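Quick one, tokens below. Sequence please?
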């Protein structure tokens, strides 16, 4: 009889804990050390959707993995069985038979897993923190148990912060009787990794959480990826409401990661762009300040197209407009620019929120390469394969 695949379920301490990046890196690393056709991936429960060319909707992370995982026979339409889109919770609560609906959703998940029955290992990516989906009986812990999966938990760094986080979620997993087998400490400050490794050991974790039978393994101490949380101006355009592109958003410069947000409030006579702005910064300024904008455009030209400013965000109150001649100058300078209806303070807050929640995009080839290099040095793929009995 064929042996059922090992299902490794990746979950983390919050949304944007690094589950997608880890799913990508672990699947590619496993495929490089094993037979690629024996490695599978699934996102049992998703929250954000993308539309494929044939019009079918799948979770965004499934689409991303289809582009970058290099796994043979990757069929996105089979790998995103349940999606908690807008209105799902209300519809679930108002359904006539919630238990029957949960059973239906569980069957969808199991059917998707069955489509991967020829695999030796399936990387299953969780959604949000471990309790997400509990309203429908499909929390990460519930789905892990449904799949009889081995759970790997992504924890934040910092000795005290990591232990505090683990204390909460390991207790939850124990309550749910989940099989947690591994921990990955992610998004770490590189200079502090040696200290973390000294105190956050497998012996320390198994001593603190004996309910897992001494089976907790540490699979990596992963430093933060420099460009990963930095959005492109294209992502700014598509993430913020009332946003208008000034220029051609199809140009490759719109897809480069932007670095620090620089809000320009100095009067034109005091503004020195070379002192206030660095290459690839995201500059926020009022659209009605033509002298300052022209000064910034001049500085961008001096830096050059490939080394210039990352993007320009112009804020514009209702009833105001960008002068046509200034619009033409911006387009001529080749500086990716987005016009936002709203004041600078509100726009700045929305942009900082975007920096906190930026995910990989299908065009982020350089970011994926950086992720691969980083994981190859910090993720113990051979220990990963050994822990889960993958040959």
């Amino acid at each position: 009889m064929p042996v059922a695949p090992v299902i490794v379920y990746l979950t983390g301490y919050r949304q944007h804990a690094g589950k997608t990046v880890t799913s990508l890196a672990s699947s590619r690393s496993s495929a490089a050390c094993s037979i690629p056709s024996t490695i599978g991936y699934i996102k049992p429960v998703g929250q954000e959707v993308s539309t494929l060319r044939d019009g079918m909707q799948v979770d965004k992370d499934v689409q991303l993995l289809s582009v970058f995982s290099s796994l043979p026979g990757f069929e996105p339409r089979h790998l995103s069985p349940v999606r908690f889109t807008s209105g799902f919770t209300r519809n679930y609560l108002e359904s006539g038979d919630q238990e029957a609906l949960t059973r239906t959703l569980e069957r969808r998940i199991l059917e998707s897993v069955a489509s991967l029955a020829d695999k030796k290992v399936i990387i299953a990516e969780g959604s949000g923190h471990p309790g997400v989906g509990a309203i429908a009986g499909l929390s990460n812990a519930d789905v892990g148990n449904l799949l009889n999966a081995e759970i790997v938990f992504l924890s934040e760094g910092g000795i005290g912060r990591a232990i505090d986080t683990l204390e909460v979620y390991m207790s939850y997993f124990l309550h749910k009787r989940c099989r947690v087998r591994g921990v990955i400490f992610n998004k770490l400050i590189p200079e502090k990794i040696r200290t973390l490794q000294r105190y956050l050991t497998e012996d320390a974790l198994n001593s603190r959480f004996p309910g897992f039978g001494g089976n907790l393994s540490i699979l990596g101490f992963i430093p933060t990826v420099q460009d990963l949380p930095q959005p492109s101006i294209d992502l700014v355009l598509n993430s913020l409401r009332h946003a208008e592109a000034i220029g051609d958003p199809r140009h490759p410069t719109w897809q480069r990661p932007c670095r620090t947000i620089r809000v320009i409030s100095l009067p034109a006579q005091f503004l020195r762009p070379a002192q206030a702005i660095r290459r690839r910064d995201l500059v926020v300024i009022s659209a009605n300040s033509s002298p300052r904008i022209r000064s910034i455009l001049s500085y961008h030209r001096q830096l050059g197209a490939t080394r210039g400013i990352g993007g320009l965000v112009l804020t514009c109150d209702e009833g105001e407009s960008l002068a046509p001649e200034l619009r033409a100058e911006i387009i001529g300078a080749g500086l990716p620019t987005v016009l936002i209806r709203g004041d600078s303070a509100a726009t700045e807050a929305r942009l900082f929120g975007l920096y906190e929640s930026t995910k990989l995009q299908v065009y982020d080839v350089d970011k994926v390469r950086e992720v691969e290099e980083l994981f190859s040095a910090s993720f113990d793929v051979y220990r990963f394969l050994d822990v889960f009995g993958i040959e």
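The domain at 233-357 is CATH 3.40.1390.20 (Udp-n-acetylmuramoylalanyl-d-glutamate--2,6- Diaminopimelate Ligase; Chain: A, domain 1). The mean pLDDT is 90.
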